[in-house]
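Section 3.1: Structural characterization of target chains.
Under the original work plan, the team committed to producing a structural model for every single-chain target entering the pipeline before any wet-lab resources were allocated. The record below documents one such target. The sequence was received from the expression subgroup and is listed exactly as submitted; it comprises 610 residues.
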Amino acid sequence: MESKGEIMGNLNVANRTLAIMDNLAFLRRLNNECIDLIAIDPPFAANETFTGNPRPPISDAEYAEEIALAQAHGVEHNEGQGLTRVHDIWSWDEDVHPQWKMRIEDDYPSVHAVIQAVEACASENEAAYIAFMASRLLECRRVLKPTGSIYVHCDGHANSYLRMLLDAVFGADSYRAQITWQRTSAHNDSRTFGNVSDTILFYSRQNRINVNDVRVPLDSEYVERFYRFEDEGGKYQLGDLTAAGVRRGETGDPWRGNDPNRNERHWAVPMTGLYAAWIEETVIPGYRSISSPLARLDALDKAGLIYHPADGGMPRLKRYITGYSGQVPSDMWTDIRNLSGQSAERTGYATQKPLELYERIIKASSNPGDVVLDVFAGCATTAVAAERLGRQWIACDMAYRAWTMLKRRFLQNGWKMSDTTNASYDAMARVRAALPDTKAKTIHTHTIGPDELPERDDVDPEPHHALRQPRRGARQSTQSSSWSGRIPKDEAKRLLMDRFGPRCWGCGYEPRRPNGSLDETLLEVDHIRARRATQGTQGNDELYNLALLHRTCNGIKRNRMTLEELRNHNAMNGLLYVEKVSDLVDLYEATQFAAEQIAIHTARYGLQTV
């Protein structure tokens, strides 16, 4: 059963849900195309750990609640009571599961190419970060509605890499804007150009936003430059009452001695838009219901909204500044400043962003009642902004401190989560006392942990798998009629382990945990002959060129050597777990096995091999 619009299958998710768990596991349990807006502020790959002091300090009672909730979910609490930490240091071993890498390489070749490019241009740490983000953004793409939007907050550490990644995941044609947010003024003590801005990458299949909901006051310099006229109605600028082109109907008839056709133009009196609405609401009741263009001109002239040049030229429309609610922001946001240390909004969370910033995003790309998702919830800025604007929200963060921060942020804004106890209520007593109404309104929320994940009631869409993609350069968008013999790496790993055992083909090591159980995560699928060798003949991704390698051997081999060269290297350096190289997996036998499996897969998919 496929369900679109339903968020989860067998769990009746509240309009307001907090999930405390790894966000990838949570995303995997959301149904396809169920989210209207995703607004995330993920780590920036800054290669450091950010710390903050929650204010007021986390009380003993709040900390005890965090520990109790973590124990109830069967996990270890990952925060201390004092400092709140945001870990932003990345590595392949600690942050990227081998299965993610294999899935991306097999099913999303363009995403895999971005990861490889980052590793070549930057470092392995940045590549690991992009791989971490890729697995999550691919799920974000799946859960986002066709009408939905995603905003990804970043800074100069990885914004160019994330831009490439988002192009690969969502499609370059879905790119809408790279918003520069000036979060602070220039630094006088800097030895180089001051770093005063962040970047927000905006992607959507629809090339529009709710412009009337995000207008900002006109810039003072703009007003001084363009609104040069003033009368008893206020400041105004002059606008056209005509448009290009000759018309034979009433729009081309002369009015009070002015013939627009003489200049190859016709009357174009405003009937839609903000200014026409202002005219009707404040100056000429029923203005937009006047059907005759010449009658509208008479009404505008009677109301004093038409300027007649002294030299007898064509009349112009007076566009008063009071008739505009403001201008649509550009992609340079300089009017929202970061939180100061004394801001009442400040929570002490290390990477907190202002509510005004995320309220603008939510207003621009969602409507009341829509579902807003944030899978890097932190101190809950997106969730609070969504609540203030009447949206549904879902927040996810793996830190149990996020639960406390969410309760505090809502109390700060006059709401009490349904699972808020006296612990947070008492800790925020001083903050509540400063509010006009100190009695918080209870809102119904749903907090879930890693042991409460529901089952989805739909299935994943077909991945962009190499088996099902047209060959490069082919015009058709249907399944390719030929296949080179490539089998997904996760499937190849299982085939090779079942046939040759769970051991490394480079050294013979069989990874076991202290209790004797097999640790399959330490075995990776790599190439016998490197696919992009730095020297010598290059290999390919076909099964007969794949081997099982222990993570350490794979790190030694990389693109520098073949599997045979790796074996000789290990033998010369005493790194073999067998007596001699000939005791390792026979590569001729592996080739024969690969040929059999390719034949089986060819028949299964009904494809012809090239």
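Residues 124-143 form the longest helix (20 residues).
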